[in-house]
Amino acid sequence: MSQQWRRNTLLVHAGTPALGDIEPTALPIFPSTSYRSRSAQMLDQLMGGEIEGFSYARHANPNVEALVDAMKQLERAETGIATASGMAAIDAAMYATHVEPGDTILVSQDVYGASLNLLGTVWGEMGVKVVIEDFTDLTHFRQLLEVHKPRTVLLETLSNPLLKVLDIPQIVSLVHGVGAQLIVDNTFTTPLTMRPLEWGADLVVHSATKYLGGHGDAMGGIVLGRDEYHNRLHQYLKLRGAVLGPFEAWLIHRGLRTLGVRFERQCHNAAKLARILQESQIFSRVFYPLFADHPTHAVAERLLPADLGGAVVTLDLGGGKEDVFRFLDHLQLVASATTVGDIYTLCLYPLIASHRNQTPEERAKMGITDSMVRISVGLEDPEDIALDLIQAASAVRISDSLVIQKD
Ligand SMILES: *Cc1c(COP(=O)(O)O)cnc(C)c1O
User: Fold this and answer.
1) Does 209 contact ligand 1 (Cβ within 6 A)?
2) Is the CB of 342 under 6 A from ligand 1?
3) Which of 116, 157, 207 to mutate to test the pocket of ligand 1 (most atoms within 8 A of CB)?
4) Which residues form a coiled coil (predicted)?
5) What is the CATH number assigned to the segment(s) 7-30+61-256?
């Protein structure tokens, strides 16, 4: 498929390899772990990487290739791999940038909690220094680069749960100015709203478990970048073996076909939900990236399309852990579950899930309170989602006032 097609056309069509004489509209699933070769010479060339093809499933699989091919076109990447999960994708990207013992990795404090833990434990124990900092102030960021001289920098396009947007084009030039490499986790924005490689980022990673798959039924990860990363990314997969299974690749690829309509509607629903909840005044704070009172609103307006401000809304309920537990237990429509990006609306409590391994001080420094919940907005009618959140919050308030009355 040629690169000249527009984004929604690519979503629907990209990554459909021709299989000889037959050309099915839906790619069959190839569970085969190995492939017969027509000749010994062909197998020899295949194993030597002289010709493209399939020999063993840890090296290549048609369903995985189709998915990676589609993602390469969407993110304008020259090479890419699919991994067993988003975590494996981040690990692979770090490996691809040649991070070695003695090196420093500079990480935005707002990245996914497990990413911080991966770097701090697995990479930290290998002798890599991990510096976790706030990247919103670019003068401070420049100082961090000069002081720490990192090999690699990691950040996310839309942070979680506070939905901060960093000035990625500026950050790219600062990072390259000190000879470092930038990995951008594009999970929350998808290639529909941000394509960091076009801004010069070195590698892009996705948890395909989220919006790309979109239906809460497949785990996977994607890493994309320029050709210079090709060998190391593929070596990582072959040797560490964190490959994506063919069925998962097929599900995620099928999810990709409808990403355009899903993500657009989910963003619209999120914006509408955020407005209703803001007006209801039942939450002490409503975070949405394009709201004028959001701390990084000016950057978000510049980097995000006006009608695609992301599909996540973060709410501060006020009160403490017991109040949030009661709120979660009162939800009827919204699922209290730990993921984002599904077609269903989901509510996550960072204190007990994504940020449970951070200390109260670390959470406070990040701006995450004990009464914040993150809403991943699905495809339901936003009015119904709002009703459910408001009734659950009201139930907490009512029981609070009953307690006060009893006293
Ligand atoms: C979920 C997530 C990950 C990890 O992905 P898994 O597929 O759960 O391994 C990484 N980054 C972000 C931003 C995520 O939301």
Assistant:
1) yes
2) no
3) 207
4) none
5) 3.40.640.10
State whether CATH 3.90.1150.10 applies to domain 259-406.
Answer: yes
CA 34 – CA 392 distance, rounded (Å)? 53
pLDDT at 405 over 80: no
pLDDT at 300: 97
* C-alpha to C-alpha distance for 303 and 301, rounded to whole angstroms: 6
How many CB atoms are closer than 10 A to CB 399?
A: 14
Phi, psi of 287 (to 5 degrees): -100, 125
* Residue 98 near residue 123 (C-beta atoms within 8 A): no
Q: Using a pLDDT cut of 70, give the percent of the chain over it.
A: 97
Ligand 1: centre distance to CA 180 (Å): 24
Ligand 1 atom with the shortest distance to the CA of 188: 13
Q: Where are the domains of the chain?
A: 7-30+61-256, 259-406
Report residue 404's pLDDT band, with 50, 70 and 90 as the boundaries.
low
The residue nearest atom 7 of ligand 1, judged by CA position, is 86
Q: What pTM was estimated for this model as a whole?
A: 0.95
User: Ligand 1: which of 91, 107, 117, 187 to mutate, judged by most atoms within 8 Å of the beta carbon?
Assistant: 187
